[in-house]
Design a protein that fits this description.
This protein is about 45% helix and about 20% strand. The protein is α/β, with parallel strands linked by helices. It has one domain (about 5-185, about 225-235): Rossmann fold. A seven-stranded mixed sheet has the order 3-2-1-4-5-7-6, sandwiched between helices. Strand 2 (about 65-70), helix 4 (about 75-85) and strand 3 (about 90-95) form a beta-alpha-beta unit. The chain starts with a helix and ends with a strand.
């Protein structure tokens, strides 16, 4: 099975200079989260759905892997990954969104950062991650809030077709051959909020959302969008 022709076409020329600015900011916060849950040494690591390579470059910059390999469905993304000339990156391959062209347990770590919300058949995708790696890190936006209709409307132009609560996210992992070991809900960084909403408004939003998550962690994700993350072992 592969991603539908419509989705494939959507991402073919998706990555450009405008997208790159946002990707660079989100890569920093995502690798911060990865380090908090995954530790300082991820070994041989596969980035599945690597986008334009911003996360790959940030991981390489921090020297937390033995080696990197990447898979991406978009030709524009692959071109940008290759242009980065990342020292620890061994290979970049195009794939169909599901079948990972690597042997069983070939990697110490597989990562899928802001990918799952784009995937038509999530469990098929996650089972492939569980097949090729000893541990798997997944990060997603938690967009299933009380304002779900708004989340769907805002996410659709960016290809978001799945919307998660944290509990639904964990259940999806647990029914896809993965066992969550460490999990967390994160706020977006101040840098990200300021990039999206402007310097003052973004700083205020970050302060409100961070405070809400700290003081009312069970309730805050019903009102605001956060990030869900999980480091898992393969069953």
């Amino acid at each position: 099975m592969s991603q539908s022709a419509a989705l494939q076409a959507f991402y073919e020329d998706y990555y450009n200079d405008d997208v790159a600015k946002k990707q660079t900011i989100t890569a920093v916060q995502s690798v911060d989260h990865l380090l908090q849950l995954g530790g300082p040494d991820l070994g041989a690591t596969l980035d599945i759905g690597a986008g334009d390579g911003a996360v790959l470059q940030e991981i390489d910059r921090r020297r937390i892997v033995k080696s990197l390999d990447a898979l991406e469905i978009s030709a524009s993304g692959i071109a940008r990954i290759k242009a980065r000339n990342i020292p620890t990156l061994r290979s970049v391959q195009m794939f169909d969104g599901y079948k990972v062209p690597h042997l069983d347990q070939n990697f110490d770590t597989a990562i899928a950062i802001h990918v799952l919300e784009h995937v038509e058949h999530e469990r098929l995708f996650l089972r492939e991650l569980a097949r090729v790696a000893k541990q798997v890190y997944v990060e997603i936006p938690l967009e299933h809030t009380l304002r779900l209709k708004r989340s769907i409307s805002l996410g659709r132009p960016f290809g978001h077709i799945n919307h998660y609560t944290f509990d639904r996210f964990l259940n999806l992992l647990e029914t896809s051959g993965l066992t969550p070991i460490k999990t967390a809900v994160f706020s977006n960084s101040s840098s990200y909020e300021q990039f999206v909403g402007g310097r003052i408004k973004g700083a205020i939003k970050h302060a409100i959302r961070s405070s809400a998550l700290k003081t009312a962690p069970a309730i805050a994700p019903m009102a605001f969008v956060y990030l869900g993350a999980a480091l898992c072992s393969a069953n």
